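Practice record 12: protein with N-(iminomethyl)-L-glutamic acid.
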Amino acid sequence: MSDLLITNLAEVATPIGSSPRRGNDQGAIQRYANAAVLCRDGHIAFVGSESELGERFGELAEVSRLDGRRGTLIPGFVDAHTHLPWAGSREHEFAQRLAGATYQEISAAGGGILSTVRSTRAAAEDDLVKQVLVRMDRMLDLGTTTAEAKSGYGLNLDDELKQLRAIRRAGESHPVDLKATLLAAHETPPEYRNQRERYLDIICQDIVPRVAEEKLAGFSDVFCEHGVFSADESRRVLAAGKRHGLLPRLHADEFVDSGGAELAAELGALSADHLIAISETGIEALSRSGVTAVLLPGTSFFLMKHTYAPARRLIDAGVAVALATDCNPGSSHTESMPMVVVLAVFELGLSVEEALTAATLNSACSLGLGDEIGSIEPGKRADLVLLDVPNALHLAYHYGINPVSAVVKNGQVVRRERTPCMPGSPSNDSGRRQPPERHNSG
Ligand code: NIG
Ligand code: FE
């Protein structure tokens, strides 16, 4: 693997460290002006000013080069909550919502998650792999280099395994790294509608052990919500996961306060996600326990709720905040972390610096990857995003565009956009977009 040298950067902007940044530290990012980054063996060997690079490394001959074009380099986005492997589409429900129906009304009428369960059960594993790869291409275009991906549209042993195998195969044949989560407790399947206990037995006795045995997931998750799974039921599923080595994360307090945050704290979950309806005691519990809050402002936006998770109160209470897309066909149909950063700034009230930390280092930590990725520091993996903007503030200041002009994964350029960064800046490539990486999508 050849070294990669990135020069001519107006700015490098990155959080620092391997653990979640909380409180005032959430917004304390490191900036280097007129910067350069050297990648060796897939890792970062140097980050700093171009002049310091020259002093330390002299003339570098045998390297690939990436011209920063006076743009901004940030760590690759880490999308800590997605539901990537689904089949079918729910735009008809979207139309119903535009006409005034609520997400919960549509679910109660047999649509919602169960509608995607029907189409996902009907899909072949190969088809799921192809659809996941298309979504991963969009993610990479938008600067995501690592993503979490949940099952949860199978709701039986075979179809949950099918989704998790699709995640594994897609992850193996695409530059974006995927970290899989078992979400068999996403909803009660129709065949167990009146025997929820029986379905919970199946999850705990059959699905969890099999997923662990085949090493198909590192995490387990439950949709802990009024009318879906109670805190007691969620505790049972997550405890079964823990016994088999699946670390807990939790859909908590999305629509109503269900004691989800308190449960995540009690179990020492890696994350408590959504939290739109979190209570004061929930905030205190998260702050005492060190659980990361993964906020999903795209879901409030897409569900047209006009209420967002209390991000400022969480940060002020010392809870580390991370961000994710919640990419799914019903409540947040987007692969875009730049869009999530914009919503975090405009609707959650985060500063751009806090949002950058949330979308990179804190998300990485919520996946147990804080030592490896999430910041631009020597020793970390070289997962980097070049933005076609002069500084990181433009992540929110210039909204509604895709600011990504190149993506580096493990020290290799995997995406390159043609637009020159700033007027008059040198453009050194053919002006044509590179074809996407080849997949063996099976
Ligand atoms: O995170 N809340 C539960 N699950 C998803 C929605 C999934 C769907 O509607 O298909 C969410 O919002
Ligand atoms: Fe979700």
